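Lab channel / #folding
Pinned by the channel admin:
"Please post every new chain as: sequence first, then the structure tokens as a reply. Keep commentary short and put observations after the output so the thread stays searchable."

First post following the new format, from NK:
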Amino acid sequence: MIDRLTVLRARFWGLVMPILIGVTLIVLAGLGVLYFQQQREQTSLNDQAAQLQILVSNPMQINEDLQAEYDETLEILTAEADTEEVIQAVLDLAELYGFDVIIGSQEVRIATMETREEKVRDSTYYFSVFQIQVTGDYYQVTDFIDELDFAPPMDTLVIEDLHITLGEGGVTTANLDFGVYTLKQ
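Reply from TO:
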């Protein structure tokens, strides 16, 4: 009888032990995967906490940067931007890009649409809206439009609306509504 119990015990452990070892290895592997996922998440949270700590520890620097950016924008807008000067700069730019600048010609036309007052923080500006139409080669027209954003004294010029039409024979027509900010004295 004791021999029989010993044989049963040996068979039981012979069958159950590999199953227990397998289950234990699967549980350990699952815990390892969870640990590495948690490590990645913890690292990400630590990085976010460090960035937040930088922002919290130095709020005045951020406010000073925003104030400096606001002051720079205000300085640009308060520069004496004479509307006629900006229109002349647009016409000069059109001439530079090879358009024949004759007011009322087929290639460049400018018309005034409206002038209104706009309040920006504590200052009041005149905002004059104009419409210009240019006709020419596609690249000539698009290069001219790109340059409008960057050429001085264009820093007070804002393109409000833009329509480009491709015609026959590669002729391109662009209709731009642009506005010019001028400080109200």
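NK: DSSP finds four helices and four strands in the chain.
TO: also worth noting, Residues 80-183 form a domain with the Alpha-Beta Plaits fold (CATH 3.30.70.60).
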